[in-house]
Amino acid sequence: MFGYVTVDKPELRVREFEEYRGFYCGLCKTLGEKYGSAARLAVNYDLTFLSVLYAGLYEPKLKADGERCVIHPCVKSCVIRHKYQSYCADMTVYLAWLKCKDDWNDERRPDRILYAGLLKGAAEKVKKRYGIKCKKISALMKELSEKEKSGEKNIDAVSGIFGEILAEIFAVKKDEWEKLLRRMGFFMGKFIYILDAFEDLEKDTEKKSYNPLADMAGSEDFDGHVREMLTMTAAECSRSYRQLPIIEYAPLLDNILYSGIWNGYDRAVKRRKEKSGKGRKG
Question: Per the confidence metrics, is the pTM higher than 0.70?
Answer without folding.
Answer: yes
